[in-house]
# Entry
Amino acid sequence: MQEKISQYTSEINSFQPKNNDELEAFRIRFLGTKGIIKDLFEAFKTVSAEEKRILGKVLNEFKQMAEAKYQILKESLETVEKSADSELDLTLPGEGFELGARHPLSLVRKEIIEIFKKLGFNVAEGPEIEDDWHNFSALNFPEEHPARDMQDTFFIRLSPDPSPGGEGSTNGKGEAIALRTHTSSVQVRMMEAGKPPFRAIMPGRVYRNEAISARAHCFFHQVEGLYIDENVSFADLKQTLFHFVQELFGAGTKVRFRPSYFPFTEPSAEMDISCSICKGDGCQFCKYSGWVEILGCGMVDPNVLENCNIDSKKFTGYAFGMGIERITNLKYQIKDLRLFSENDIRFLKQFQSEMI
Ligand code: PHE
# Structure
């Protein structure tokens, strides 16, 4: 009997039905009321008690195996049938997936980077959480400068301080840590880490404690630039920025520089361009002046160079910084800054044709 069972076992193992009829025949042959298993159990009754002890287990396992095999085969035939039944129409158009669009800020950032890359500028990045040295002190901000004030800067507290308006946390050197308020901090890191000449731009996100409105946000994006070498002059700065706006806003864009103040540059200026929307005739965007301010710039203050261990007698340099949101607003006539961070697909989709 054992021999028979092992023969049947290998028969069952290799059985592969092509259709339901074959499977049904299998069921009748092994599991049916007059099937092999039934017969085997009949024959089992007649064997000696000695044999029963061994055979009982073998027979039961054989029966379970046959039933399990039947169940598996049945299920697999059903799934095959189901997919054959569902009217598969290969001529139907596929279910396309929607292509996203690049964010307008990414598009403009890319454009800015491309222009400066052609002029030999590298791209540098740095941390968004900064210490006081890199964000302020090294950049010649006096101790009492209002930009250090809680009004403008998001200081970071690592552990909660229960006192009202409690102290912010500090880094290992006792300096306050904060979300960077500009990417000038990357300039400091770059100058500290290397030797001049430097020629790089620093794109990145920056944070300021401002109430969110159509014209202000608590975070925005900047691209700053730095060029340090021997004999770099304000004329180099003007020429570079002039070329930049011709590329970005089109040939014929006018520029003008107004004296300004930044702690880290001397002299400092703000640069306006002729309004790219009304071409200088006057519109709401330029408040009917024909000009819009797009960046701050100047010659790197010798104190900053010395703070970064650069010989200010030998090297000079210029720096500039612009907000990507502002330039994007101008290029695409976007009037509300909040649109950039709401991720409304209807807004973002309008830039689809600009895919690069
Ligand atoms: N860091 C300045 C800002 O955030 C911009 C700037 C950069 C101005 C470099 C001058 C030179 O407003």
